[in-house]
Amino acid sequence: AAQDAAAERHGRAREEVLPLAGAAEAFALLSNLRPARAAVVAPSFTEPAAALTAAGVPVDHVVLEPPFGLDGVRVPDDADLVVVGNPTNPTSVLHTREQLLALRRPGRILVIDEAFADSIPGEPESLAGDSLPDVVVLRSLTKTWALAGLRVGYAVGSPEVLDRLTAQRAHWPVGTLQLTAIAACCGPQSVAEAAAGAARLAEVRAEMVTGLTSVGAEVVGGRAPFVLFRRPDAVRIRNALQLKGIAIRRCDTFVGLDERYLRAAVRREWPLLAQAIAEVRP
């Protein structure tokens, strides 16, 4: 039922869907594709590079410059595995379908992490519904549906690539609860609820960006359910916010970013964040 629901949700065949113990499991399985050289587009979620490096796969970070789009990106020609987020964590940048498809090359597999894609109204740049032999799309249920503790997601791709991806895998990694969650969250009613939530989130995000800009934050243009912004005094701001009980993500742990960048979740309570930033003394 889980595979059928996800397949129907994206207009794919059942055998093109692979249930996962969270999208993170897919990153641990990437080395099964036996890449000779991997390229990870950065700044991005750190787990793919960490998993590939741990498996002995050479990894190149293709670091994007602000505003962190793919225009003019140069991926090594001999990279036979490319991993990119869309929208990207932590930058929130949403790449276009055309930009992503331009990364394809003969003999290369393109992996797109769409963990936050369902938080964008209409999912206009998603490739989950495109049946392409060399593209694997990863989806997560732990974001929109707040199921992080359950560890559940799925991949969509060609059966041949999915078979290679799971050539070596722990026995029974996905249990009944995860399969039930996939079936429920991919059903028509849930998809409609997620779409309505995405529309509401977009409105709040626009207001939040305006508010943060008004207190001197340099906001990176994006569409994800979080906002990346830069301030020269970001370290002092983060420490001051901690004292006020406001959690915000430092971003110097991401390749391509430094201590001036912070990431904040899109919340209706954003005025409290903006006010707290404004109260931080130089």
Automatic annotation (TrEMBL):
Taxonomy, superkingdom: Bacteria
Keyword hit for Transferase: yes
Q: Which UniProt keywords apply?
A: Aminotransferase, Pyridoxal phosphate, Transferase
Task: Report domain Aminotransferase class I/classII large positions.
Answer: 4-263
Protein's UniProt keywords contain Transferase: yes
UniProt cross-references to SUPFAM superfamilies, sorted A to Z: PLP-dependent transferases
Q: Which InterPro entries does this UniProt record tie to the protein?
A: Aminotransferase_I/II_large, NHTrfase_class1_PyrdxlP-BS, PyrdxlP-dep_Trfase, PyrdxlP-dep_Trfase_major, PyrdxlP-dep_Trfase_small
Name what cofactor the protein needs: pyridoxal 5'-phosphate
Query: What Enzyme Commission number does this protein have?
Result: 2.6.1.-
Q: Under the GO molecular function aspect, what terms does this record hold?
A: pyridoxal phosphate binding; transaminase activity
Family stated for the protein in its record: Belongs to the class-I pyridoxal-phosphate-dependent aminotransferase family.
What this protein is called in its record is: Aminotransferase
Q: Which organism is it from?
A: Mycobacterium scrofulaceum
